[in-house]
Amino acid sequence: MMPFPFDISATDGRARTGVLKTPRGDIRTPAFMPVGTAATVKAMTVDQVKQTGADILLGNTYHLMLRPGPERMERLGGLHKFMHWEKPILTDSGGFQVMSLSGISKLTEEAVTFSSHVDGSKHVLTPERSIEIQADRIGSDIVMQLDECVAWPAEEKRAREGMELSARWAKRSKDAFGTRETQALFGIQQGSTFENLRRESSERMQELGFDGYAIGGLAVGEGHQAMCEVLDYAPDMLPADRPRYLMGVGKPVDLVEAVWRGVDMFDCVLPTRAGRHGQAWTWDGPLNLKNARFAEDQSALDAEVPCPASQEYSKAYLHHLIRTDEILGKILLSWHNIAFFQALTAAMRDAIAHGRFDQFRREFHARHVSNSQ
Questions:
Q1: Distance between CA 208 and CA 187 in Å, rounded?
Q2: Catalytic residue among 55, 92, 211, 254, which?
Q3: Residues of the chain whose pLDDT is less than 70?
Q4: Which is it for strands 122-125 and 112-115: parallel, antiparallel or unpaired?
Q5: Which of 27, 181, 357, 368 could share a disulfide with 351, CB 3.0–4.6 Å?
Q6: 267 part of the active site
Q7: Can 350 be counted among the known catalytic residues?
Q8: Looking at residue 372, what is its pLDDT?
Q9: What is the pTM of this model?
């Protein structure tokens, strides 16, 4: 028995919509998880995030293990209590940030040893320690195995080494996680852009048996087209009755194309990062509110997005806030962007449920993507 039932209510081609049921609430899929890097979705309150319709947040194990620290996190009651978020939380394993942010890292069969980017302190992260931090200290609902995300581009030999290490670490992660009734463990498919490696990785993950499966090693610089080429086959290699999570993705068009290919869950820092830098994502494509053409534009940011930041503030006002570097500008654009991503996934769920996802995809390309060029 899987701890979290996953009920697929409708399919349209390869696209699926359903509900992942957790003790802390239902996660409607396709789902976009706002990233709460260090126990906060940047520039937003928890209530604002809730109002956008988000069912689940993502927390970053690497950042939380450095500050405030896993043992302190446990003493403070876990991440849910700490940040006042009662709904589900998924945590990444920490591996990606270790290998991309740490000053010095050393990778061995046993562990990755690294220096903190904050103060230079030394840390050792094993698959077992990653599970302990996520499940027992942070208290996340969905725990990710520790894996190695190989940099792109990669030769097949290097991609195979990373895939095989990730598979061995998957076994250690699962053994450390054990059997739990109120928490789930996801395995991660690796293999870069090599179909044979992705297939072997998927087979090894399924032999171990996970509660859900992630597609890792994408959104690392390969570009939209290469990502789509991998997604043409990668999701179908994973069990159809469990959630499929595409890690670190992405732009709105990435979400639409991935859902069309059978993906259920996503996370990305893009909405809030873009918002802090003056960019708004809308149904008519991205807008750079720094541009002078918005200086006297009294229209709403996007009246079709059910969010106060989207409907109640003019582009002229937002332009002024961004140009004067007012904090409120970063808050409003981050709020709007998260609301837009939630509106996008809600629209995709509706389109799949009514058997018109192909039409939705065509219209999205014609309206949003054509204005993104």
A1: 9
A2: 92
A3: 1, 101-104, 373
A4: antiparallel
A5: 357
A6: yes
A7: no
A8: 79
A9: 0.97
